[in-house]
Amino acid sequence: MKANPPRFLEWAREIQALAQTECHYAKDDYQRDRCRRLMEIAAEMISDNSGIDRLQLATAFNAQIGYATPKIDVRAAVFRDDRLLLVRERLDGGWTMPGGWADVGDTPSRAAEREVWEEAGFHVRAKKVVGLYDANRVRPLEIFHAFKIIFLCDILDGEARPSNETSEVAFFAEDSIPAHFSGERTTAQHIQDVFAALKDPACPTVFE
Length: 208
What we know:
208 residues, alpha+beta, Nucleoside Triphosphate Pyrophosphohydrolase, 2 domains, 8-stranded mixed sheet, 8 strands, elongated
């Protein structure tokens, strides 16, 4: 079962998002100053409960502009002989489907395809959305709200190759998936859903 984010993190995220949006519509410096102070309070809440540097958080919050919306995390479910491609993150030693934050200017599917090439050494083509999930990652602590899109992909070519972000690349049968995942990047529920999509092409897209 997915762990719920700590309440302080939920509150801080909401305060930051509201302040960012209000700052976008502010009509004078007085309103903008109040919004910046609210973002500083959100940074203090997270810092006091996590050890993350308050000034770095405040700088990150104040750098956000416009109407606050969730970020997008993409993941690629790539199979070979009914085995799922996973990569081991150098950051924490955990396993995950290849993926990461979508870049500005990318389509979601293209972002997922690129991540597989960069992290695992395979060119792939996305063919179906397996699921759209809330992605409030907790480990490692993520300060911004995010959505996760998982694409079912076909391999075009390539060979398994680690990267500067990944230390191992391997394919796993459903009954041999590693127990140690990399934070919330990939969860047991995601694994269950991608194998269901593999077995049944008519399986509907999962969403939250």
